[in-house]
Structures are given as structure tokens and as C-alpha cells.
């Protein structure tokens, strides 16, 4: 794999490969690569020599036919193949037939005047598939996985400095928490913050007011209250989520996922795994692992296990009975606070 920076530098020097696979979920960097490639074409050529195809809407054959066409009034053409889900193990309800042998043939003998870019916004591909093996052998594979927290901080600092803005350190921490240190999420929030920032300084109040808390963030707070065995506050937050029309099963599923992650992180840490190794092993964002490690240093494994088992019990009851979700959660909290294993 090569880095995003390496590819951007190569494109800047007009050293483009015939086939790229941009693999990973960081939308900001994927868009940078796309725009850098497009910028290499004179404006008058772009309409005729740039093709963008979504594999959930058009066939692979259509995109490859374009890739095999000669440039029109230019020396190069570029074809983007977006969301090539057929490279993953994911099943899609898409009524399209994609000829993967055609793609294999193309990457083994690409059109010299075309740059073909497979934009794969996925954490991983199905390595067992012949088409994946062939692409990884023949294409330039770009590592577009989510950036580490440190890299996100560095990127944000550089972007703000370039625009002449600063951010209060406490405001930065809130922004990272509410976006899970996800660069794409931060990029979506930044224009609003720049708009309201007085004297080009982003404050705590502005971040708190402008960056909304996601369901996941609220559930993260709920996890904290559960582990602290603060029944009253946990119930209050749970009621608030229900009043916001959040589905009880969805709330419970996210809670389960959080406690499962805490258990996995705690176990891997005990086996000597470092933060980065844990993130890559579990295939989760490093910032989530960092927050999980902070909790596992304070709370015991048995508490994590008890909570996880209790939430599985709630899920079963939600699916098989007509009991009120709030009552089920209240019983769970009372049992958990008394250190009883709920099974």
C-alpha cells in the first residue's frame, strides 16, 4: 500500500498510474485524490474525458467501456468506479450484473491513455476473491483508512492555521469527542464553526452549540453512567433518548456494542496489545480504542461482563415481550448496581 500523501505528490508531478484502488473510509482524503486527479485535466477537456460510475446504479461493463475509449480532444481520460461493493463480502440488493472477469482482464492490460480509479470506501475487501487478488497485484493500492487521533489533530491544526483561525484546547477536545475524531465528520462541522467564530477563535460555547451530539455520543455518556452505577442519571438520559424518538432496540444495540468493545479492549490489553494493535485487530477507529482504554483502567472486567450480559437480556426481552423498554432498563440498572449478574 502507498500513502495518500505519496499519491497526491505523484499526481502533482503528473506521474499517474494506470489503475488505482483507493481503499478505506476516510472521505476527506478520497475527495482530495479525486479532485487532484481532475485538476490535472484542462477545464475544456473535463466534460468529455472524465467518467464517474456508481456500481450500485450502473454496470461495471458500462464503466469499463468508457475506460477503453480513446480520449476526446485530449491525451488522457479518467474513469472513477465508485462503491465497487463486489470487491467486499457484503451482500447488496442491487439488480445489476457485474462481469468481474472483464475487470480482471482490464487490470491485467489497462488502456494506456486511461487512469482507472476504484474508490472503495470500505474497511476491508474479500481477499478470497480472484478479482481482489488481481487488483491488489496490478493496481496502486492507496491506504485511505481513518487517520489516528494525532494525525487528525495535526491536519485540523494545519487547516485552521492556513485559514487564519485558532481553536480553544477545550473546544478541540469536545469537537474530537462529538465526532469520534473522525476527519470526515470534522470537515462537515468546520464550515459552521468558522462562520460563527468571533475574532477567528473557535470557543467551547461555539462547539457545544453548533456540533450536535449523535446518538452514539449520548450512548457513550450512558455507558459512563451505567459503569458508575448512577441509576437516577442513567434513567434520565435513557428517557431523554426515548423522548427523542430513538428506537429502544437501536439504543440497546449501541450499548451492547460499546460494552463488547470495552471487553475486547480489556482482554487484548491484558495480552500485551498496544493501542494501535488493538485498533487494527478489532478494525475500529483508534480514538474509540483510546477512550475504551481509559475506561478499562478504571472499571473491572466483571462489571463490564455483567453489564454486557444484562444488555443481552434486555435485547431478548425487547424482542420477545411487550414489556416497557424503560422498565427493562430500570430493572437492569437496579440489578447491575447491586452487582447481580443479569441472565
From TrEMBL:
Enzyme category, top tier: transferase
Stretches assigned to the DNA polymerase III delta subunit-like C-terminal domain: 216-336
GO molecular function list: DNA binding; DNA-directed DNA polymerase activity
Stretches that traverse the bilayer: none
Keywords: DNA replication, DNA-directed DNA polymerase, Nucleotidyltransferase, Transferase
E.C. designation(s): 2.7.7.7
Keyword Transferase attributed: yes
GO biological process, one term: DNA-templated DNA replication
DNA polymerase III delta N-terminal domain span: 20-143
Pfam family name, one: DNA_pol3_delta_C
Reaction equation(s) it catalyzes: DNA(n) + a 2'-deoxyribonucleoside 5'-triphosphate = DNA(n+1) + diphosphate
InterPro entries the UniProt entry points to: DNA_pol3_clamp-load_cplx_C, DNA_pol3_delta-like_C, DNA_pol3_delta_N, DNA_polIII_delta, P-loop_NTPase
A GO cellular component annotation in the UniProt record: DNA polymerase III complex
Membership in a protein family: Belongs to the DNA polymerase HolA subunit family.
Protein name listed in UniProt: DNA polymerase III subunit delta
